[in-house]
Amino acid sequence: MSTSENRGNRLFIVVPCYKEQEVLPETSRRLKEKMTTLMESGKIAKDSHVLFVNDGSSDNTWEIISKLHEEDPLFWGISLSRNRGHQNALLAGLMTAKEYADMTVSMDADLQDDMDAIDAMVDKYAEGNDIVYGVRSSRATDSFFKRFTAESYYKFIRKMGADVVYNHADFRLMSRRALEGLAEFKEVNLFLRGIVPQIGYPSAIVTYERHERFAGESKYPLSKMLALAFEGITSFSVKPIRFVYRTGAAIAIIAVICLLWCLIAKLTGHSVSGWSTLMGSIWLLGGIQLFCIGIIGEYIGKIYMESKHRPRYIIQEFLGEKPETLPDKPGDSD
Ligand code: UDP
Ligand code: MG
What we know:
10 helices, 8 strands, 14% strand, binds uridine-5'-diphosphate, binds magnesium ion
């Protein structure tokens, strides 16, 4: 149906920013450079843009974005009504860009994602791919701890049944129809890395070296990382619930065997006061029960959040052009 020839090449680079005042001047300078060379080589349309998403920053991030927009129409911006977290900010940016772009590339503000990989992504799009995943070639710049936890996490989450691309974060190109597909996923518990592969369409991979953060500090402390990791598992898999049920069944069987054993011991007169075994099993069973209830509770919590259908983000300000398809509001004149 849609072939690579009749697809446009208007690119929007979507950059979520939370308290990124230290890096934005450099990031915007390099983005300008990249966009200019891409435009000059004819790979992307002249009316391509960079869309910054201010995720409720309390520092000067939005002032910097507004100034960039004033000075250069290349830069667009949206500002969310408050901090909603990286995944929601990214979604807000992608859904806004969807109205204008033929393709989007999402990347972090801190220059950790290698901008030179965008060329290869755009080429893969031109070859007919709808989604191009940026995959890290190595984790040499990460600490041993981050590398170890991240890699075990990818393995674990895939075992749990979520179809994520190994070593891919949120640096990716998406075509307009892939974004339209994404818009159909209404979940509030957002884990884009797990949703995007479910959209389908032809996809490809581009590898890149991930750099150190250019300036400022990570907005993903261990606690947020763990929360995202947990989100990834419980949003895409019911395996933990099955695990709960299987553990329960296994323990029930063991309990029956234990009972039989106690009975035989009593009948043969070998019954001894087994205080430690008793205490041990009480603690163990109590722990397992709490753990299992916790997992089930987590899923119930998710159902609760989803059932409210709350908005995932609210856009407070928009700096860019209105889409041509939207009629002017009555009373608007210039
Ligand atoms: N970010 C965001 N909202 C948040 C936290 C982070 O929009 O609540 C953005 C941040 O500005 C950056 C990207 O998400 O562009 C990735 O964050 P960061 O670099 O701090 O995470 P790390 O690379 O350390 O995992
Ligand atoms: Mg970073």
